[in-house]
Amino acid sequence: MTIQSSAIASRRGRIARMSAGALCLLSAILLQAGCAKEPPASTDGTVNSAARVEQFAKLPDWSGVWHLVGSPALLEREDAPAFVPGTRNHPPYTPEWEAQYVKDLVNAEHQGDPNYPDQITDTHTLYCAAGMPHVMAGPWEYQFIAMPEATTIVVDKETRFIPTDGRQYPPEDSMWPILRGWSNGHWEGDTLVIETINVKEGLWGDFTPVKFSSKAKYVERIRSIGPNMIENQVTITDPVALTRPWTWTKRYERLAAGTWPAEPEVCGNPEDRNPIVDGKLQVVLPGDR
Length: 289
What we know:
Blueprint: H1 2-33, H2 50-58, E1 66-68, H3 95-108, H4 123-127, E2 141-146, E3 150-155, E4 158-163, E5 182-188, E6 191-197, E7 217-226, E8 229-237, E9 246-254, E10 276-277, E11 280-281
Antiparallel strand pairs: 1-2, 1-9, 2-3, 3-4, 5-6, 6-7, 7-8, 8-9, 10-11
């Protein structure tokens, strides 16, 4: 009886060890196949902490692809006609900047006309990039990638990086004026507040030559106003060009789930076949010319 019990116990032990080994092997196979996944790693290479996962859970759902609502012709209006003479913004310019804007509006109507002596070309064409604030008010598609440490906004071929980790701006001598400026942000509840400074002077703000100085500061308040709608309220203060702050609002609508972002626009190339119709960028295939 004792010998038989010992043999049974030995067999049970071998079966238990084999089962444990099989489970380990199965787990390894599932993990390699992607059926079992490890927790995502944080920026320092460690597994996400509970606090970071909790921060993610508090962020708004801005997944997917978004498109500007209404016309991109003007910053201050959603219903403005595009490329119609006389269409303009009404920023609180100083007399000097207002006079220059009026003059530029006339010259802009003749852009591309070699027979017109004072024609000017929009800076989006010159730089093959919109820059601030035009980049947030164009006929392109938008992606908002929100993380606890930073939010990235991808627009056509331009990318804005907005840290929200409490960092300070770089040293002043390293922060020269650039197309999209230098942005820093923070969250106020479910609203992303962005401050952008040191934007290159002379950029067109939309499809009219509305411009600001390099001393301008742009404060954006981006928030969800519905399950598929984002609002961006922008306030520009410019001690050189404006007599008071100027505020306008843009909205972005989420496109259908599964939408792929459009091919980035090609600038300054004979293959650029992307006309803007009703405020939306069109893609014309070579065979359809």
